[in-house]
Amino acid sequence: METVSIGTARRIALGAQGFATPRPKGISDRRQIRRVLRHTQLFQIDSVNILARAHEMPSWSRIGAYRRGTLEAMLNDGELFEYWAHEASLLPAADWPLMQWRMELSRTGKAGWASVLAMEQRNPTMINNIFAAIRDNGPTTASSFNEPGRRTGPWWDWSDAKLALEFLFATGQVTARRRSNFEREYDLPERMLPPEAVNAVIPTEFEARHELLRRSAIALGIATERDLYDYYRLKSKASRPALQQLIADGVIAPVAVQGWKPVAYLHRDAVVPRTINANALLSPFDPVVWERRRALQLFDFHYRIEIYTPAPKRIYGYYVLPFLHDGRIGARVDLKADRHSSTLLVLGAWAEHHAERVAVAEALATELVELAKWLDLETITASQLGDLALPLAGELRSLSR
Predict the structure, then answer these.
(1) 3-state SS of the chain: helix, strand, coil percent to 5?
(2) pLDDT, tens digit, for every residue of 8-59?
């Protein structure tokens, strides 16, 4: 079995995620976002908007400035759709058939949230009535029902109408776009997606798992079996035959990675960049770091998102972004967009143990200036928290002169 050094594994992984290609000059458009999607395969969604929406950041990290709202426009005109992939995610419309097996599992109660799926048995009349209302009257939101009825505490105090809509969404009977307040607006797939996606041949469950694992391998470049399953949240037992088929066909090959206990799998088309020169702030929901064990294995970077940690118990901050520098994660920075004062707040900055602080501070300051411009924030204010705070503040002052 071939042995791959950890440095090579990092370059393969970052190259697979699109970081070997320099950012284009100027403002990027849909074509560049499509290029990002060819690397990442999907964009994870999250409601937190303290800096920017989670699905917006991976494109920024790879291609720099692009017009805000482009992803929403791609969702609204049917180029993308939302579904449960790696959590809630935006995917290319062409992937709609690949999700049908998961929708079928939801219909039969073998996947999804029990409270949502129980709706079919608990209140089928409500489900049918809500579906008919969407079919006959057009797109709707949960709030439009203004239901005063019973609440279901375990699921964010969702009403029965919301649960019914989520059942219809999980089973693919409706799909959704997002309003400006991030609320889902539900409509029929045939009204939101192109006919070639809705009417495409539906693969078998094995074929879909096989294709999703193949895409995971492309997106990751080099990965453990666990990583491959995690990318689309696939169950290992049900997906292992598809993984074995990929190995048998030579699509992926087992390799040993220096310092890793599990066997890794290398995609046959994975490229080994000579260097990775990208400087990039990574969202907590970026594929490079969303699987925390992989981040630790690849980058020796121990990372936990602390959004749900009580403030006194946080180590680094509420919304901390890793900073990719010189092919490794060189720092982490706690950021907030104060839109009222038009200020990018740097609430804390810390260098990783291996990083050369002056170089990291200089590169991070440049990235923060570009990020502030993209977010239409006029100023940057840096606190003194963290061992990188002082050199970073000095670099920001230099750039503002």
Answers:
(1) 45, 20, 40
(2) 999 999 999 999 999 999 999 999 999 999 999 999 999 899 999 999 999 9
Tokens of 217: 């391998």
Phi-psi region of 327 (alpha: psi -120 to 50; beta: other; left: phi over 0): left
- Report the distance separating Cα 108 and Cα 28, nearest Å: 43
Which helix H or strand E contains 324, and what residues bound it?
Answer: strand 320-325
Which residues, at least 6 apart from 305, have a Cβ–Cβ distance to it below 8 Å? Answer: 284, 320
Structural tokens at position 322: 């890793």
Give pLDDT tens digits for 68-110.
999 999 999 999 999 999 999 999 999 999 999 999 988 877 6
| Alpha helices for 257-316 (secondary structure H) | 292-299
pLDDT bracket for residue 115 (50, 70, 90):
low
Residue given tokens 């279901």 in the structure block: 152
Enumerate the β-bridge partners of residue 85. 87
pTM score: 0.93
In sequence order, the β-bridge partners of residue 333 are 321, 349
Q: What is the DSSP string of 85-111?
A: ESEEEEEEGGGGGGGHHHHHHHHTTSS
- The residue length of the chain stands at 401
Structure tokens at 392: 């970073």
Helix H or strand E encompassing 332: strand 328-338
CA dist., res. 350 & res. 316, Å (int): 8
Phi, psi (deg, nearest 5) at residue 350: -135, 140
Distance CA 336, CA 343 (A): 8
